[in-house]
Amino acid sequence: MKARVHVMLKNGVLDPQGEAVRHALGAMGFGGVNGVRQGKVIELDLAPGTSEAEVTQMCEKLLANTVIESYSVEMV
User: Fold this and answer.
1) 3-state SS string over the chain?
2) Where, if anywhere, are coiled coils annotated (predicted)?
3) What is the model's pTM?
4) What superfamily in CATH does domain 2-75 come from?
């Protein structure tokens, strides 16, 4: 079983990497991009029986900085 954790900066938190990507896209001629938010995807290979609640605990304790980041868990 696998889980995917999608981590993004919360709305209102400055995203300098996203802004750099937006600026670079504009410089390359892609003028239709008004904003970019950059995040990360963490894929976990889980032992059988590992619950979504356990993955949520992993996020709360290590995988996401819940002060400035939000996350979602996808069990696959």
Assistant:
1) CEEEEEEEECCCCCCHHHHHHHHHHHHCCCCCCCCCCCEEEEEEECCCCCCHHHHHHHHHHHHCCCCCEEEEEEEC
2) none
3) 0.87
4) Phosphoribosylformylglycinamidine synthase subunit PurS (3.30.1280.10)
